[in-house]
What does this fold into?
Amino acid sequence: MLTGCGSNDFRTDGMEEVRVSESDGTLSFQTGEVVTFDALEAIRVFKNMLRKADKLPGVVNIVGPEYDIEIRFEDRETDRYYLWLNDDPKSVSSLYDAEDTNIGYRLPADVTEELIDLLEADD
It folds into this structure.
């Protein structure tokens, strides 16, 4: 079952853990210095990220991401995303599915704030 807010079809059911690494600025996943989040509260933050992501219109040209995110599910499937966080409320934080980087998704300010708090707390 896929769940979403109508502007995307990102899977959120059965999330078991989220692995995050700082990107090297390319569209390839980093395997060094990975932080794993598996606590329920952390999983909730990433579920909100996916549920509230709003599709950006048109084809998007992107520059290297800040974070590489890999979500692992109970059924052993994985989804991968690229994340850009912007703490300036006038700018957009964004998310891209690693399988289709031509489509971008905007993240609302409350989700951006939650993600920044979560990722900075783990530094």
User: Anything to note?
Assistant: The first helix runs from residue 40 to 52. The helical segments are 40-52, 109-121. The domain at 15-121 is CATH 2.60.40.4400 (Immunoglobulin-like). Strands lie at 15-22, 35-37, 54-55, 67-73, 78-84, 93-97, 100-107.
